[in-house]
Amino acid sequence: MKHFSALKDAYSLCEAIGSQVRMDILSEILEHRSITLSDLARNLHLTNGALTPHVKKLESVGLIRISEEPGKRGTAKVCAIALDKILIDVASFLPEKSHSFTIPVGQYRNASSGRRCALVGAHGFIGETDDPRYFTYPEHADCLGLWLSGGSLTYTLPTPPHAQTVISEIRFHFEISAVATLGDTLSGRISFYIGDTMLGSATLPDENRDRRGALNPDWFDTVYPQYGSLKTLSVNSRGCFWDGIKISEITLAALKELKTFTLASNSGFALFGKNLGDYSIDLGYTVEYDEGC
């Protein structure tokens, strides 16, 4: 998956598919799953010279990939789809009276985990896998993502700049999945806390290893959790919501201070940062204010 957090960032990709010829090329590749350049040209009634610039355009924005494979007469260039999903945040602006923060997933203040755990770095794991001691090492702040079993992560929340205004809603968004363990029979569950107040609990999306995460480094093998689902947790005057579904009656009035945010799970979870998984995001935190303030 390719994720664009703003419409302007997707200009090159939109330009690439803004052609009937290139749309026909994509349709042919999708129909055949993979196809040689010569077969593609023949099916579309194009010369190789006419086809080449269109194929290069699609390849340059990451929509397709071209590889060389053995053919009847030497090697043949084969086209295949490189992206299965494209997500564009068209309305990515925030309301006028709101403030948004990004917290790197490795910059937690406290962590605890069972035996199965790991910190994913840019070029390899930070420390060793399945050793919770490495969660205390300073290098954890630079991790791309992590997973843990039977534990929790606590983050320090940035202080909103509008100290004298009334908060109407707080929201968190992040890419997350369950972590499978031997003998699991139930879906993973996770609970959320602001300070000592439990906001609610929700079911985690399943762990995914069916394909590589769109942003994963080359060394990150598919035996590890590959990507999660983009989830939103929100709290307002009506309660606490998980992707818009109410999970508790806890409201903003029940929260004493917005100082820490904790994710905790007996079954474990994987948390993906902006350079791991499918979505180019870290832990997002938004504070929204009443219009009249």
Task: Please give a structural write-up.
The chain has helices at residues 11-17, 20-32, 37-43, 48-60, and strands at residues 2-4, 34-36, 64-71, 74-81, 86-88, 98-103, 110-112, 117-120, 145-148, 151-156, 167-178, 189-194, 197-203, 229-236, 239-242, 245-248, 260-265, 269-272, 283-289. It is mainly β and 293 residues long.
Structure in a nutshell:
This protein is mainly β.
Task: Tell me the Rg in angstroms.
Answer: 23 Å
The class by helix and strand makeup works out as mainly beta
Strand content: 35-45%
Helix tally equals: 4
Q: What is the average per-residue confidence, as pLDDT, rounded to a whole number?
A: 89
N-to-C CA distance: 39 Å
Which regions have little confidence, pLDDT < 50, spanning 5+ residues? none
Question: How many extended strands?
Answer: 19
Principal-axes shape call: globular
Instruction: Characterize the main sheet.
Output: 9 strands, antiparallel
Order of helices and strands: EHHEHHEEEEEEEEEEEEEEEEE
- Assembly annotation: single chain
Percentage of residues assigned to helices: 10-25%
Layout of secondary structure:
Layout: E1 2-4, H1 11-17, H2 20-32, E2 34-36, H3 37-43, H4 48-60, E3 64-71, E4 74-81, E5 86-88, E6 98-103, E7 110-112, E8 117-120, E9 145-148, E10 151-156, E11 167-178, E12 189-194, E13 197-203, E14 229-236, E15 239-242, E16 245-248, E17 260-265, E18 269-272, E19 283-289
Parallel strand pairs: 1-5
Antiparallel strand pairs: 2-4, 3-4, 6-19, 7-10, 8-9, 9-18, 10-17, 11-14, 11-18, 11-19, 12-13, 12-17, 14-15, 15-16
